[in-house]
Amino acid sequence: MELIQNTVMLAARDVGVGGRGAHLVIPSLVGPVLATILVFNRIYWRISLVRTLGLDDLCITLSLVRLCSLSSINVLKAD
Predict the structure, then answer these.
(1) Which of 42, 59, 63, 78 could form a disulfide with 21 if both were Cys (CB 3.0 to 4.6 A apart)?
(2) What distances in angstroms separate CA 46 from CA 40, 52, 54, one per listed residue?
């Protein structure tokens, strides 16, 4: 019982961007930005060299959309 109370007190103390939330918010912002730059770079060069996009580019783009949506949920819910 004491372990549960200590865990609840620790979780209540370390909320917000100044607490443990910063460790969630920063990678949730940096990761999608970096991924977006890399995916747009890939698409740019793929169109420049091959003049078409493949199924793998579609999968990468859909993965990027999912990454951005999940990261935005993490940022919005980090109290």
Answers:
(1) 78
(2) 10, 7, 9
